[in-house]
Specification:
The protein is α/β, with parallel strands linked by helices. It has helices at residues 15-21, 34-40, 64-72, 83-91, 101-108, 133-145, 151-162, 171-176, 182-195, 199-212; strands spanning 5-8, 25-27, 48-51, 76-80, 97-99. Helix 4 (83-91) packs across helix 5 (101-108) and helix 6 (133-145) runs antiparallel to helix 7. The model has no long low-confidence stretch (mean pLDDT 93).
Amino acid sequence: MTDNIIIFSGPSISHDKGKNILKAKYLPPVKRGDIQKIINSEDDNPKIIGIIDGVFHQDPAVSHKEILNALDENIMIIGGSSMGALRACELEIYGMIGIGRIFNDYKTGIIESDDDVAVAFDPKTGKLLSEPLINIYYNLEDALKESIITKKDFNELITIGKNIYYPKRSFEYIFKKSNLDSTKLDNLNNYLKNNYYDMKYLDAIKLLEYIKQC
């Protein structure tokens, strides 16, 4: 099914890249009232709504009530990657479907805060202007497993990252504020240069591929 599908995305996966995977109507990151407008619209009659990205601080976030209203209208609501993962974890018991590692980590309590997936982005282009803490966590966790850094280093870097306001988060800024020596930082930077991955992007792809099979 590719008809009557609406996807809210932006910084996690661009509309152009999304359309290469799934034909759908793509809208900017969801905010409060957007889903209720869709429910009330005579033009839209979606069978599936996919929530990838949503606003956190620029505007009020999408409410639980409007998602529940959509579910009551027999609209399938699927979330993953970012705001979608957070809302899916909160509303899975009511029928919202969650997809991806980030959703599962919210569900199991590995991550808990919306701040973990929050990013700053250009509202016109969707271009990322900061690094989400969740990507920092996953990539540094892999560096720890590969013995590039120690557990002490990992804890220090994550603590620094959590204490930085989300629009300013970056690996570079975190490293500058750390106590790691230059050799270790060089090794870590080289590791990330060759092994970095964007879990929010990968989870967004999983969500689109899941909908494609519906």
